[in-house]
Amino acid sequence: AQTIHQWPVAEIKAVGSPLSLGCTIKGKSSPNLYWYWQATGGTLQQLFYSITVGQVESVVQLNLSASRPKDDQFILSTEKLLLSHSGFYLCAWSPLTGGQNTLYFGAGTRLSVL
Amino acid sequence: GQQVQQSPASLVLQEGENAELQCNFSSTATRLQWFYQHPGGRLVSLFYNPSGTKHTGRLTSTTVTNERRSSLHISSSQTTDSGTYFCAYSNTNKVVFGTGTRLQVLP
Fold first, then answer.
1. Interface touch A45/B97, C-beta < 8 Å
2. % pLDDT > 70, chain B
3. Best residue of B95, B96, B99 to probe chain A, by most A CBs closer than 10 Å
4. Does B56 touch chain A (CB under 8 A)?
5. Among B87, B4, B27, B93, which residue's Cα sits nearest to residue A35?
6. Residue-wise over B41-71: b if at least 16 C-beta within 10 A, else e?
7. pLDDT score, position A60
8. What's the rounded mean pLDDT across residues A1-5?
9. Which residues of B touch A51 (CB under 8 A)?
10. How many domains does chain B have?
11. What fold does the segment set A3-113 form as a domain?
């Protein structure tokens, strides 16, 4: 069975500080990977997706960057946090091929920027 | 660009009542998925349903592809159904979420 793990569970950071959020998928080779952001009370906004190691496409950047250093790992980062980065960050995966292109989400990371 | 509208924005029910949630999207979907978000944030997939009708328990999803709409029917609602329901659609790797329906089921 596939599992998706996000870390950390929550972060409280200062404006201007760096950030790194991680996501690991086990039990599935070559998944599509996605990062989403959700403001409090808002909808989910896709930030990045990756279909293979080393390739990341930006949908909405929000002064963030993403990398896929390994097949099963997706990293979201920034060197300087803004107040507007606060929110809930969700990583998701879907099968690369196959008829059912379902999205599966991790438990998320809640970020507060002060 | 891709857009998706959900209605109603919020809904309050008495336990036992039924609910019908709507999702309208701007172009043909190859992926249409309904999610439930727990009050704590966890997102759970309810249905992957780009066309036709699917059932699970008290939930039914119906997607009419050529009319670019999908619905989620909840029968005999329970207090544990409270939370936010999202539909998400795409025909590419860009997956667009609707604004969600916030459901509150009162005992």
1. yes
2. 100
3. B95
4. no
5. B93
6. eebeebbbbbeeeeeeeebbbbbeeeebbbb
7. 87
8. 89
9. 93
10. 1
11. Immunoglobulin-like (2.60.40)
